[in-house]
Design goal:
The chain has a seven-stranded mixed sheet. The chain has about 500 residues and is an alpha/beta fold. Helix content is about 35%, strand content about 20%.
Length: about 500
C-alpha cells in the first residue's frame, strides 16, 4: 500500500501541496503565491490559469523536497477557496475571464435587485444563504451578463462553471480530454443554487438567477474516488486517485475532527470562518449566520453546519504591510502591538468589502475610530489584531443563539494562530479557552482525511480522532467588566461603519 496521502490546498493568496502520514503528520510541503488582481474598488480577481500552473508546480516541488514519487501517494484530496467563480471553454480549457474572488463585490447591484422583492432572506430556507455578493451564483450571473458570448456558449454546453475545486478536478483528470466536471456538496452549498434538502441544483433558483444548467458540474460526496489523475499536464501523477473534496472551511472542520454536534472551530486566515457541526439537521439561522454542508462521506447522510464568515482578518495585517508600510513582514504586527498595553481607545472596523456575518451589510466600509494625539503605530497594530477577535466574538454569540449550544472551547487553526497576543485576546474577549492543535494546518489535513478514507488509508473517523492533540491552550484572564466595556465600544464602532457606500457607487 502507498505510504502517504497528498492534499492540494488552494487558498486565496497561495497554493500548497502537503503530504501526510497515518498519524496526520506533515511529511513534506511546498507553497507558491499567486497574483491578487484589483481592477477597480471592490473588484478582486485571480488568474485561474496561473492557479492551475502553480498547483502543478507545488505538487512536483513537494515530492522532490521529500524524496517521494507519485507512487508513494494512496490518493489526493482537494480543498479550495470557496465561492471564487471560474468559467472556461470546454474545448480549449481556457478561462473566459479572470476568476471573481469571494471578496469581489461587483455583483452588489444584482443583490439589491433580487432583494427588492422578498428581502435578503428570500432564499434562505431553500439554500441556507442570504442574498449577498459573497456567494457564487450571482458572481456567475454577472459573468454571463458581461463576458461577450459567454451566455450563448454556456447554453450550448460549451462553457463550464465551477468554484476552484471544480477547475482543479477538471484539469487534474484530463481537462479538455475528458476531464471530470464535478463539485462536492460543500462547495455546491456555497453557490446559492443548491437545495439543502435534495443536495441537487434547484430548478427554481436556476430560473430565478437565469443560470443554464448545462454549465453546472455534477454534485458528488466529499469522500469518494472521483477518478484518476490523467492527461499530459499531470505527468507522473497520472493514475493517482483523486478521492476527496471539501471547501476550505469545511476541510478545517473535518481536520479538527469536529464530528460531534456542537463542536466548533475557527480558521484565522485571509478572512475568519467559524463553523459548528449541527449533525444531520440543517439548522436555520435567525442570527445572521449561514446554514451550510459540513461534509458528506460516501454512502452516508450529510452533516450540516452553521457558519459565520468574516471577510477581512489576516488580510487586514497584509493591508497594514502592503498599503500603509507600517510593517515589512506580517509577523511584525505582534511585535508592534506589544509596544503598548492596550488599544489606547482605537478601534478598527475592516469593512473593506462590506460586513459579512452576522451583519450582512454590503454598504459598510472600513473605519478607524477613537483616534487622539495619544494614539501611535502600536495602538493601530493592536486594533488590527483585536478586530479579528471582536468579529469572532460576534459570530460565536450568533452561533450560540441559533443552535442553543454555547461554545465551551474554540478550536483554532490557520496562519494567525501563531500570534500569541491575538490568541490570548481571543480567549479573553470570548471568556472561553482557545485551543491550537498539534497540526495547525487543518485545512489541508481535512482534505487528506476525506481522500484517505475513500481509499481505505484510514478506516474511519475514530482513526482520525486519535490523531488530534493539543499544542497550546489559552485561558481567559480579562476582568469581566473590562470585557463588556470594550465589546460594547466595538459594537458602537461597527454601527458607524454601516451603509457608508453611497448608492450611486
Amino acid at each position: 500500500m502507498s505510504r502517504y496521502v497528498g492534499a492540494i490546498d488552494q487558498g486565496t493568496t497561495s497554493t500548497r501541496f502537503m503530504v501526510f502520514d497515518r498519524e496526520g503528520t506533515i511529511i513534506t510541503s511546498a507553497q507558491e503565491e499567486h497574483a491578487q488582481i484589483y481592477p477597480a474598488p471592490g473588484h478582486v480577481e485571480h488568474d485561474a490559469a496561473e492557479i492551475w500552473a502553480k498547483t502543478r508546480k507545488v505538487m512536483r516541488q513537494a515530492l522532490e523536497k521529500g524524496g517521494l514519487t507519485p507512487r508513494d501517494l494512496a490518493a489526493i484530496g482537494i480543498t479550495n477557496q470557496r465561492e471564487t467563480t471560474v468559467i472556461w471553454d470546454r474545448r480549449t480549457g481556457k478561462p473566459l475571464h479572470n476568476a471573481l474572488v469571494w471578496q469581489d463585490t461587483r455583483n452588489d447591484r444584482l443583490v439589491s435587485e433580487f432583494a427588492h422583492d422578498g428581502g435578503r432572506d428570500r432564499f434562505r430556507d431553500l439554500t441556507g444563504l442570504p442574498l449577498a455578493s459573497y456567494f457564487s451564483g450571482l458572481k456567475l450571473r454577472w459573468l454571463l451578463d458581461h463576458v461577450e458570448g459567454a451566455r450563448a456558449k454556456a447554453e450550448a454546453g460549451d462553457v463550464l462553471f465551477g468554484n476552484i475545486d471544480t477547475w482543479l478536478l477538471w484539469n487534474l483528470t484530463g481537462g479538455p480530454e475528458g476531464g471530470l466536471h464535478a463539485t462536492d456538496v460543500t462547495n455546491a452549498s456555497r453557490t446559492q443554487l443548491m437545495s439543502l434538502k435534495t443536495l441537487d441544483w434547484d430548478g427554481g433558483m436556476l430560473a430565478t438567477f437565469d443560470i443554464p444548467r448545462a454549465m453546472l458540474p455534477g454534485i458528488v460526496s466529499s469522500s469518494e474516488v472521483y477518478g484518476e489523475a490523467g492527461g499530459e499536464a499531470v505527468g507522473d501523477f497520472a493514475g493517482v486517485p483523486i478521492a476527496g473534496i471539501l471547501g476550505d472551511q469545511q476541510a478545517a472542520l473535518f481536520g479538527q475532527t469536529c464530528f460531534t454536534p456542537g463542536e466548533a472551530k475557527n480558521t484565522y486566515g485571509t478572512g475568519c470562518f467559524a463553523l459548528m457541526n449541527t449533525g444531520e439537521e440543517a439548522v436555520p439561522s435567525k442570527a445572521g449566520l449561514v446554514t451550510t454542508l459540513g461534509y458528506r462521506l460516501d454512502g452516508q447522510k450529510p452533516v450540516y453546519a452553521l457558519e459565520g464568515s468574516i471577510a477581512i482578518t489576516g488580510a487586514l495585517v497584509q493591508w497594514l504591510r502592503d498599503n500603509l508600510h507600517m510593517i515589512s513582514d506580517s509577523a511584525e504586527v505582534e511585535t508592534l502591538a506589544a509596544t503598548v498595553e492596550d488599544n489606547g481607545g482605537v478601534y478598527f472596523v475592516p469593512a473593506f468589502s462590506g460586513l459579512y456575518a452576522p451583519h450582512w451589510n454590503e454598504g459598510a466600509r472600513g473605519l478607524i475610530i477613537g483616534l487622539t494625539r495619544y494614539a501611535n503605530r502600536g495602538h493601530i497594530a493592536r486594533s488590527v489584531l483585536e478586530a479579528t477577535a471582536f468579529q469572532t466574538r460576534e459570530v460565536l454569540a450568533a452561533m450560540a443563539k441559533d443552535s442553543g449550544i454555547p461554545v465551551k472551547e474554540l478550536r483554532a487553526d490557520g496562519g494567525m494562530v501563531a500570534n500569541g497576543t491575538l490568541m490570548q485576546f481571543q480567549a479573553d474577549i470570548l471568556d472561553v479557552p482557545v485551543v491550537r492543535p498539534k497540526v495547525s494546518e487543518t485545512t489541508a489535513l481535512g482534505a487528506a482525511y476525506v481522500a484517505g478514507l475513500a481509499v481505505g488509508y484510514w478506516n474511519g473517523l475514530e482513526d482520525l480522532k486519535r490523531n488530534w492533540g493539543v499544542d497550546r491552550r489559552w485561558t481567559p484572564q480579562m476582568d469581566a467588566g473590562r470585557r463588556e466595556t470594550i465589546a460594547a465600544t466595538w459594537s458602537r464602532a461597527v454601527e458607524r461603519s454601516f451603509d457608508w457606500k453611497p448608492d450611486e457607487d
